[in-house]
């Protein structure tokens, strides 16, 4: 797509996403997908096995970009599907949907390599600020990229977070995208430098 087409796509997606809650309700049946990380051919395989949108309802849990060689194609397709079939696909934010992280792990460099300037990277990273943080399937199954936070006790507290910002280095929003489950009970310091570890208790 041209740079201008990407800009318009991101603007349209922003209009849709800004109306979605931090805790987006999702209806079952739904196919839940984890990190794609620029592996466009894996995304195609997911659709081949699971069914193409809008026939299948999808929930993607973040980390669309970085590491793989086709981050642009991957995120462009997912955002285009969101714009076309907004009620059949939910795209959450992962910790890689961030300006800082994408400048280190490949998405920024890929955009500059493919377009000759960082404009497309800016359009997408501005859009990432609007991605919902969590989803809840049939008011029963809580889905998110990272994990829990010691700063949050209720879904209403998640709903009230101001998500339209770069992923912070600490605090509740950071934890939702960075925390990890752990064998040890209680809260622990994350070895990744952001978020927490949390036990089954």
From TrEMBL:
SMART domains xref list: PP2Ac
Keywords assigned: Hydrolase, Manganese, Metal-binding
Molecular function terms from GO: metal ion binding; protein serine/threonine phosphatase activity
Classification via SUPFAM superfamilies: Metallo-dependent phosphatases
Gene3D superfamilies in the cross-refs: 3.60.21.10
Reactions mediated catalytically: O-phospho-L-threonyl-[protein] + H2O = L-threonyl-[protein] + phosphate
EC number: 3.1.3.16
Domain Serine/threonine specific protein phosphatases: 92-97
Database matches in PANTHER family: SERINE/THREONINE-PROTEIN PHOSPHATASE PP2A-RELATED
Protein's recorded name: Serine/threonine-protein phosphatase
Species: Euplotes harpa
């Amino acid at each position: 797509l041209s740079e201008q087409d990407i800009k318009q796509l991101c603007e349209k997606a922003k209009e849709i996403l800004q109306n979605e809650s931090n805790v987006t309700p999702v209806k079952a049946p739904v196919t839940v997908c984890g990190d794609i990380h620029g592996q466009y051919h894996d995304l195609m395989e997911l659709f081949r096995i699971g069914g193409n949108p809008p026939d299948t309802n999808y929930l993607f849990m973040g980390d669309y970009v970085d590491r793989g060689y086709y981050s642009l194609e991957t995120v462009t397709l997912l955002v285009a599907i969101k714009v076309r079939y907004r009620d059949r696909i939910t795209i959450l934010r992962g910790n890689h949907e961030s300006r800082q992280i994408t400048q280190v792990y490949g998405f920024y460099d890929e955009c500059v390599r493919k377009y000759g300037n960082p404009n497309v990277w800016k359009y997408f990273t501005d859009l990432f600020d609007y991605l919902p943080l969590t989803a809840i399937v049939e008011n029963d199954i809580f889905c998110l990229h990272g994990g829990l936070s010691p700063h949050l006790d209720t879904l209403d507290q998640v709903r009230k977070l101001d998500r339209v910002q770069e992923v912070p280095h600490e605090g509740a929003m950071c934890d939702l995208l960075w925390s990890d489950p752990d064998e040890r009970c209680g809260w622990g310091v994350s070895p990744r430098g952001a978020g927490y570890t949390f036990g089954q208790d």
